[in-house]
Design a protein that fits this description.
- The protein has 55 residues and is mainly β.
- It has one domain: N-terminal domain of TfIIb (Single Sheet), CATH 2.20.25.
- It contains no helices and four strands.
- The N and C termini lie far apart (32 Å).
- The protein binds zinc ion (ZN).
- Zinc ion binds next to loops.
Length: 55
């Protein structure tokens, strides 16, 4: 598991957030980063799927 440090708005410090799958979108999977201490959402990201069959 990768550990990402993000600033938590409630804890007021950088925490090793947990990545949680939120939505599956046509342009990629949307994840949110959750603080393991208080459960606050520290941020979101969309990971584009690897381009396949587009050569
Ligand atoms: Zn927190």
């Amino acid at each position: 598991m990768e550990a990402t440090l993000l600033a938590c708005p409630r804890c007021k410090r950088a925490v090793p957030v947990r990545k949680r799958l939120l939505l599956v979108l046509p342009e990629g999977d949307k994840y949110e980063y959750v603080c393991p201490q208080c459960g606050s959402t520290c941020g979101t990201t969309v990971e584009a799927p690897p381009p396949m069959g587009r050569l």
